[in-house]
């Protein structure tokens, strides 16, 4: 019988600037406000696809866990062996599962390190090397702005002609750089500009999402729903007035209600009790404001087999990235959107050996392939939508990645 591979987690204690530790070799990240996890070096990696991809992912992760001998002196969520995941939006596209060799975590001022293998505890060095200046050429995406507005009009017609209540349409832009794109500089800029978002990187997909799809920790589940958006002006007084108008907008409240309902319905079978606030709050980001609702629940204690994979299977795709009803919206997306989303709008984050984890929706992000990055934005279309306004909203949602590159 082959010997087990050691996995060791120990406390570091000190406050660490996580994103400054990342080398250029396969960096992975899930960081918010300085807390979270970063990792590098690839111990194991695979891809899954198909309607059962969450179950395939669970089986692969459990098979890996059987080969480990874990020594965990920290014993908190996010310690021990960690799986970073980046699932596709469409089940027929490729999802990525990755186990880093080295992981460093921070929570509430306490830090730890986990490493795989027989070697001594890795030394941590802040990666302050200069990043080469890069020049970017901005191109069109899979669909021109004019054509995309036409597809929004088509979606509005689909809604008026059927039982469809909402459909999310996405668009992309392709940017070419003079040199290979370094994800670390993008992560640092996103983290500095958007500290309340989760800054992520998995296998070339980098971004900063404001939307937490799932946090599972010791029997408690949380999901932050965002739907309904308005751009900020930078003038505090005007923005307060805009926030108030967003909170009263029937179009945005309708879109938000669909998204909250889909998450509440998905969590209900797993939970002994759920808390769904009656009305949303307005989440202020650097470039936009969103209607937001935090849905929480306590898992049914007798159901011992509930883990992040089983909940993800029911949560994705939510109304926030697909529409309502989900199946009908997915069919309309396949019919009129006209592009591959890849891992945009899919679940991204991490899962530990207990099945606990934190995963967001891969929004405000881009997929890097050497010196090319493809960035994405999506808008929820309802009966009261206007194609020109939706185009403006999508441009506002490109802003985080635009500024991180520029």
Automatic annotation (TrEMBL):
BP GO annotations: salicylic acid biosynthetic process
Keywords for the protein's UniProt record, in alphabetical order: Isomerase
One Pfam family in the UniProt entry: Chorismate_bind
SUPFAM superfamilies: ADC synthase (SSF56322)
EC annotation from Swiss-Prot or TrEMBL: 5.4.4.2
Domain Chorismate-utilising enzyme C-terminal: 146-397
Catalytic activity: chorismate = isochorismate
GO MF annotation list: isochorismate synthase activity
Family: Belongs to the isochorismate synthase family.
PANTHER family: ISOCHORISMATE SYNTHASE ENTC, ISOCHORISMATE SYNTHASE MENF
Official protein name in the record: isochorismate synthase
Organism per entry: freshwater metagenome
